[in-house]
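Handout, section B. The chain below has 173 residues.
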Amino acid sequence: MYFFTADEHYNHPNILKFMPRPFKDITEMNVELIRRNNEVVKKDDFVIHAGDFCWKGSAEFVRNLQKSLIGQHIYLKGSHDNWMNGHYHEIWEKNIEGQHIVVCHYAMRTWGKSHWNSWQLYGHSHGKLESIGKQYDVGVDCNNYYPVSFDRIKEIMSSKENNKGLIKRINET
């Protein structure tokens, strides 16, 4: 199973000033985000983090945080991922159950295979940006502070309009 999330902002005290998150302090937020991940994710599941995972912290803090999360985790760089050094990716693409998915921290106007109704999952906007076509903000602020399963995203996408510029395939008439 695949899960998607973004904008956790672990260890970022100012996020509680910028967003009306229901936590008394950053420690409570960190603990609750870990709990919610571990409530739904199993050890063999993949979790794609679309940026802004962790603000700052020692290498030991980040390692301990990552070890506390159940699942296999893939981290994309966001605008506040100061902990990432060296090798990182900004875009992740995969076909899951025949559906092409593009994940990036930022919402895009067009993306890989968007003209064939691929999906684009993003964060960064904390629910303040309207999606276009088959896009969805997977940020924790939009999803009750939980990662979103592929199955849930399938449900959401089924009611969204087609992407702009959709090209029908030859066998579709």
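Note. Strands lie at 2-5, 46-49, 72-75, 91-96, 99-104, 119-122, 135-137, 148-149. Compare this with the example in section A.
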